[in-house]
Structure prediction request, 121 residues.
Amino acid sequence: MGALGLYARYARASIKGQMQYPASFVFLTLGQFLSTIVEFIGIAALFSRFQNLGGWTLAQVALFYGPDGAYSDKAKSLLSHIPLGRPGRPEEIAHAVLFLVAPEASYVNGAVLEVSGGMSV
Prediction:
């Protein structure tokens, strides 16, 4: 079974499980939709203040906001601005979060831990 087949099997099982509790399914779907809207409103607010960031306009960022994993030429040019030359992986961000919640970070206070591959705005 390929990755796509495995993902489809997971999606079917997830939807089947969620449909046992229809109200939960509706609220989960609504929550995911609203969180995406709130994120995009934040991006729009940022662009309303600065008009463009690194030569990118709101329309260009909106175009690339949804696609995941499929990079066009314009998206690849954004990657060229990241010193490591690639997008971050979820586990890299997770390791930073795990450090911040670990007892070893108990004295860390008010710090910004930037996990950006060397790119800063």
Summary: The chain has two domains: 1-50, 82-121. Residues 82-121 form one domain. The chain is about 60% helix and 0% strand. The chain has a mean pLDDT of 78.
